[in-house]
Amino acid sequence: MKGSFLLSRHQNNLFKHPHFGHTITDDCYGHQLHPLSLHGPVIHVIADIIKVHPDAEAKGSMHHHFFVMIKQIISIKGSDPSIVNLEKEHFVAVRYGDHLGIPKPIQGLEAGQSIELQGEYIDENHVYITPDNREGEPCIHFTHRPVGFVIYHGEEYE
């Protein structure tokens, strides 16, 4: 798979943090030491779901994969909101069903619905290609503890 090692691919474009090494954020958060971290800023958004892929298994865990259009940036920690292109679709990956992701699948994910998310933001210059994100759209991942959460139809998943 093309570009599976984010940090080695982009080390010339990354910030140098004294504790965490190369990152794509300008702030230090403990989540960057977590093995699932891609060393990005943490973003909290409200978005509209525009396309839902069938659930996918990756490295022994299940994931929801879907695309959203961000309507509102509630907060971003570790970067300026200007890195978020509100005109582009954003790929979202939500891990579930194991001790690292949310405990259970999100019921009824469908296009046209609103969703609130918090996770690690990977901009289009640092994202890597996956089977469900072949165009390399910006990505919100790590949408589970200890960084993120999902609120869908009034139910919070973390």
Short descriptors:
two-stranded antiparallel ribbon, disordered N terminus, mainly beta, globular, five-stranded mixed β-barrel, 1 helix, OB fold (Dihydrolipoamide Acetyltransferase, E2P), 158 residues
Task: Give me the count of strands.
Answer: 10
Helix content: under 10%
Strand order of the largest sheet: 3-5-6-8-7
Class from secondary-structure proportions: mainly beta
Per the CATH scheme, the topology name is OB fold (Dihydrolipoamide Acetyltransferase, E2P)
Run of helices and strands: HEEEEEEEEEE
Oligomer: single chain
Q: Please state the overall shape, judged from the principal axes of the Cα atoms.
A: globular
Describe the main β-sheet briefly.
5 strands, mixed, barrel
User: What is Rg?
Assistant: 15 Å
**Number of helical segments with 4 or more residues:** 1
Low-confidence regions: 1-23
How far apart are the termini?
A: 29 Å
Please state the second-level CATH architecture: Beta Barrel
Number of domains: 1
What is the CATH top level name?
Mainly Beta
Beta-strand content estimate: 35-45%
Mean pLDDT: 81
Question: Would you mind describing this structure in some detail?
Answer:
It is globular and about 35 Å long. The two termini are 29 Å apart. The chain is built from 1 helix and 10 strands; from the N terminus they run αββββββββββ. The longest helix has 4 residues, at 6-9. It is mostly beta strands and 158 residues long. Helix content is 3%, strand content 40%. It has one domain (40-157): OB fold (Dihydrolipoamide Acetyltransferase, E2P). The strands form 2 sheets. Strands 3-5-6-8-7 form a 5-stranded mixed barrel. The chain has a two-stranded antiparallel ribbon with strand order 1-2.
